[in-house]
């Protein structure tokens, strides 16, 4: 019996055409067997990180209105040339009139406000946002002001000697910035003025700051009374700690060291508590600070967000602290009194490092890591880096590594004529052979190649053998005055 013919299959509706997917860039083959939950977690974290900038902007919007503005740079002329990174002049003012009577009595803040600067620091944030350098400027430093009009007397001055903190009383933030720029030849990008109130609020919103002391600290003027050991300081007690000047004979210089130690601990608390990663916490801290500060017109929400994003991976080891080197204590000036006179040569080296975006403690190794002594300080050696290989980015990596050791790299690495260098080479003028040996010591396995007429700038041709740099230090011992310390060396748990 013949088989009956089959009915024709029903016709399917054509599916709408899908838009073509963009070509996937080539990459390494995916690993097999990765759990789906891990993929989801990684994806979720990526979304959070990518969205955090937008979230941060949302929660911080409107904070500009909380900031009291000051025109610290109005009509300023003949300013120093700007460098890499960002320089902030951080000024601590009195502001005791904004604190309640009960708190003034408790923390010994009696008397009338002085309308002067109690603390002054220059804070340099490196261009790569991986380092913060903090330089304390003693308030009793001998200074000569630029020409200005005294805001209290209305008298015009052609420039006269005074103590650095008196510049604020005579000409406010603008004269303070002008005087600091004149003394340091560092261009100030932003001005931030913090008073007692904002300081106490900041410490409290962070939950306190941990401070360690090997010796008891007692100052009858501020009421500070800390036994030896570790202490969690809240706002008022923290203010006593950073204000105390009568604990020992070092007076203001000793106080500045405690302020630096406190800032390192503050960074440790802020970074370890995840504040920079949490937009809501970041908002609370910034509101606590901004509610009672004054800042220049260019320092606002965008700048805070940029700093917050850049410093998410910041830690105390990323910070370094020092005080301007002093040549003479008790330098008597007629009509001014006893002042501190800066060491001109040492101060110039210090601020040159700021202008050139170099670490202040150039060539100093991390704790526990030996450094090779070299005949010439890296801060005195200028270097041009060339990439001698076809490896993209090698020149930038070498330039950044040498700059991290303190060498004065140009910051603009180039490609060599031939991209086939197997070995790293240091090209130098024979007259600068000691500098060349110092540079070669920082590049293990490198070859020295003398070239007459090369001049003072040394050239590094990075080869395929480059794996990293070696820490070096000048053979000359570092003076105790003006010593630089890293933040991780002064937080609790460190000697």
Automatic annotation (TrEMBL):
UniProt feature, compositional bias: Basic residues: 9-18
Positions with biased composition (Basic and acidic residues): 486-495
InterPro entries per UniProt: LytR/CpsA/Psr_C, LytR/CpsA/Psr_CW_biosynth, LytR_CpsA_psr
Domain LytR/CpsA/Psr regulator C-terminal: 380-466
Composition-biased stretches (Pro residues): 19-29
One Pfam family, short name: LytR_cpsA_psr
Domain annotation Cell envelope-related transcriptional attenuator: ranges: 117-270
Ranges for region Disordered: 1-35, 357-376, 475-495
Family (UniProt): Belongs to the LytR/CpsA/Psr (LCP) family.
Entry-linked PANTHER family: POLYISOPRENYL-TEICHOIC ACID--PEPTIDOGLYCAN TEICHOIC ACID TRANSFERASE TAGU
Protein known as: LCP family protein
Classification of source organism: Bacteria, Bacillati, Actinomycetota, Actinomycetes, Kitasatosporales
């Amino acid at each position: 019996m013949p088989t009956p013919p089959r009915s024709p299959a029903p016709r399917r509706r054509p599916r709408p055409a899908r838009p073509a997917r963009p070509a996937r860039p080539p990459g390494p083959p995916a690993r097999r067997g990765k759990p789906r939950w891990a993929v989801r977690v990684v994806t979720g974290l990526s979304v959070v990180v990518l969205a955090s900038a937008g979230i941060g902007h949302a929660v911080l919007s409107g904070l500009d209105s909380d900031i009291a503005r000051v025109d610290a740079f109005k009509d300023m002329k003949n300013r120093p040339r700007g460098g890499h990174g960002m320089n902030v002049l951080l000024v601590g003012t009195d502001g005791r009139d904004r604190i309640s009577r009960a708190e003034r009595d408790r923390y010994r803040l009696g008397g009338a406000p002085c309308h002067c600067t109690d603390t002054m620091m220059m804070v340099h944030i490196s261009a790569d946002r991986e380092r913060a350098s903090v330089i304390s400027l003693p308030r009793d430093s001998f200074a000569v002001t630029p020409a200005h009009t005294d805001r209290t007397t209305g008298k015009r001055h052609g420039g006269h000697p005074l103590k650095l903190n008196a510049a604020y009383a005579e000409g406010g933030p603008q004269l303070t910035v002008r005087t600091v720029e004149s003394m340091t030849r560092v261009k100030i990008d932003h001005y931030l003025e913090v008073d007692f109130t904002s300081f106490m609020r900041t410490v409290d919103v962070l939950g306190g700051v941990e401070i360690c002391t090997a010796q008891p600290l007692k100052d009858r003027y501020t009421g500070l009374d800390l036994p030896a050991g570790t202490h969690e300081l809240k706002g008022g007690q923290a203010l006593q700690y950073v204000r105390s000047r009568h604990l020992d004979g070092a007076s203001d210089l000793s106080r500045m060291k405690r302020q630096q130690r406190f800032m390192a601990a503050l960074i440790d608390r802020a970074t370890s508590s995840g504040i920079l990663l949490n937009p809501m916490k970041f908002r609370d801290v910034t509101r606590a600070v901004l509610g009672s500060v004054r800042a220049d017109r260019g320092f606002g929400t965008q700048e805070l967000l940029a700093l917050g994003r850049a410093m998410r991976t910041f830690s105390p080891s990323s910070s370094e602290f020092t005080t301007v080197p002093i040549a003479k204590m008790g330098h008597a000036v007629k009509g001014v009194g006893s002042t501190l006179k800066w060491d001109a040569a040492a101060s110039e080296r210090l601020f040159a490092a700021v202008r050139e975006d170099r670490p202040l403690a150039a060539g100093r190794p991390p704790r526990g890591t030996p450094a090779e002594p070299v005949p010439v300080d890296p801060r005195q050696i200028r270097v041009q880096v060339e990439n001698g290989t076809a490896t993209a980015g090698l020149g930038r990596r070498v330039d950044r590594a040498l700059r991290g050791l303190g060498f004065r790299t140009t910051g603009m690495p180039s490609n060599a004529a031939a991209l086939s260098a197997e070995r790293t080479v240091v090209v130098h003028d024979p007259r600068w052979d000691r500098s060349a040996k110092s540079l070669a010591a920082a590049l293990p396995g490198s070859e020295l190649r003398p070239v007459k007429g090369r001049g003072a700038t040394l050239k590094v041709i990075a080869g395929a053998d480059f794996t990293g740099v070696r820490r070096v230090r000048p053979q000359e011992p570092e003076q105790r005055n003006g010593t630089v310390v890293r933040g991780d060396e002064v937080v609790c748990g460190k000697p």
